[in-house]
Amino acid sequence: MTEATVATLLADGARALTGTADNARLEAQLLLAQVLALSRAQLHAYPEATADAAQAALYRGLIERRAAGEPLAYLTGRREFWSLDLAVTPAVLIPRPETELLVERALELGPPGEARVADLGTGSGAIALALARERPRWRIVATDVSAPALAVARANGAALGLTGIEFLAGSWFGPLAGARFDLLLSNPPYVGADDPALSDPALACEPALALTPPGGDALAALRILARGAAAHLLPGGWLLLAHGTSQGAEVRAELVAAGFAHVRSHRDLAGHERMTEGQR
Known about the structure:
Number of domains: 2
Number of helices: 12
Strand content: 15-25%
CATH architecture of the largest domain: 3-Layer(aba) Sandwich
Largest sheet: 7 strands, mixed
Low-confidence stretches: none
Structural class: alpha/beta
Oligomer: single chain
Mean pLDDT: 93
CATH superfamily of the largest domain: Vaccinia Virus protein VP39
CATH class of the largest domain: Alpha Beta
Strand order of the largest sheet: 7-6-5-8-9-11-10
Order of helices and strands: EHHHEHHEEHEHEHEEHHHEHEE
Shape: elongated
Helix content: 25-40%
Distance between the termini: 65 Å
CATH topology of the largest domain: Rossmann fold
Radius of gyration: 21 Å
C-alpha cells in the first residue's frame, strides 16, 4: 500500500462516516490527528502531507470502528467534561454534557468554604474532578465498585494535578464507613434491562454495570441512594441524583418518602428533567 495524503484520507474518512457521525468531517479530522500526532490546524495547513502505510491502515481501521457505532471517545481515549480533558476507556461511562447539571447544582448548594462531598459511582472521576477544580477547599471522596473505573479516575486526577480526592472501592455507601457529608452526588445506572435504547451500538460499547442496575430494574440504584443517603448526610446536607428523562416524578417521590425537604428536579438544556435534589 502506497502513502496517502492527508487530504485523501480525510475525504475518505468523512465519506465513510457520513450518516453515522453527527459531524463526519470533524470526527475524521480528530481520528487522523490522533494517528499522525498532529493538531487539526496542522492537518488543515498541510493537506499534501503523507501518512505511511501503517498509519493509513490504522486510521482506516479506526474509521471502520466508528462507522460501526463505536463511540469516538473510546477511539480517541479522550472526552471533555467541564472544560477538563479526561481520559476514558471502555471501563467507564463516557461523560455526558447533561451530567454537568449535577456539578452546577452542587456548586450552587454547597458552601463556598470547606465542605465534605462524596461522588458515588464516580466512573471516570468527571464529577469529583470538576468539583475539586472549582472548590479546592472541599474534601471529596469518590467511590466506585469497579476497580478498573477507579484506576481511570485516579489517573485523571493525577494528570490534572487534582490529587486531593480520596478514591475508595465499594458499592454506594459501603466505603463511607459511617462518615457524613454536606453533599452526596451520584450519576448511577438508570437504564432498564428492557429499554430499547440498549440496542444502540454506542451504548453496547459502554460498561453494562454503569448503565443498568443488577437485576435490570431501572430505578434500583436510585432507590438505594434515596433511601440510604440520610444516614450519611450532615444536617441540612443535600442529595443530588442524575436520572433518566422520564424518571423525575418517581425519584421525587422516593426522596419525599425518605424524609427529604425542598425536593425538586432540574432540566437540561433540551428541557428534559435530568437530575433531582433534596435536603436532609
